[in-house]
């Protein structure tokens, strides 16, 4: 997934409107994870990384069934690219988890202040 969305990181750096959209996705995903954590009683706790991976997988599979294809180049990224931005947000949050992916490029404070108040490399609460 990370490789097919690579052009999104470049687009985020170049287009402030995309960063705004991404921050909305970050907030929405955090809310979804909190709801999943509290709504489902599990005999064994599930990590946030597993919940993020599940959310990203379900989002991608649903979009692919509906004909979505990842944007290939920076100019393909628009504020209407809901699925791509949602997946980038999942990847960004997963990369902040202790055992999460270590991307070549991710959202940094230079791109935009974190809406979550998390320093680069930090873990969301």
Question: Secondary-structure element sequence?
Answer: HHHH
Enumerate how many helices there are, as a single number.
Answer: 4
- Domains, number: 1
Count of extended strands: 0
Give the termini distance in whole angstroms.
25 Å
Provide the gyration radius in Å. 14 Å
User: Which class of secondary structure composition applies to the elements?
Assistant: mainly alpha
Strand content: under 5%
Q: Report the helical percentage.
A: 40-55%
* Spans where pLDDT lies below 50 across 5 or more residues: 109-125
Please tell me the overall pLDDT: 83
Q: What's the story with the biggest beta sheet? A: none
Q: What would you call the shape?
A: globular
InterPro entries: DUF6401 (IPR045647)
Biased composition (Pro residues): 116-125
Pfam families: DUF6401
Region (Disordered): 96-125
Structural write-up:
The protein is globular. By secondary structure, it is an all-alpha fold. The protein contains four helices and no strands. It has one domain (3-95). Mean pLDDT is 83; it is low at 109-125.
């Amino acid at each position: 997934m990370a490789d097919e969305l690579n052009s999104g990181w470049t687009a985020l750096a170049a287009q402030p409107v995309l960063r705004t959209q991404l921050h909305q996705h970050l907030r929405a995903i955090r809310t979804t994870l909190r709801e999943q954590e509290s709504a489902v009683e599990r005999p064994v706790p599930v990590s946030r990384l597993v919940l993020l991976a599940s959310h990203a997988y379900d989002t991608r599979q649903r979009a692919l069934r509906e004909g979505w294809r990842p944007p290939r180049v920076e100019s393909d990224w628009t504020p209407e690219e809901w699925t791509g931005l949602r997946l980038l947000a999942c990847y960004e949050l997963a990369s902040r988890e202790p055992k999460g992916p270590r991307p070549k490029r991710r959202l940094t404070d230079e791109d935009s202040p974190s809406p979550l108040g998390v320093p680069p490399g930090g873990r969301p609460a």
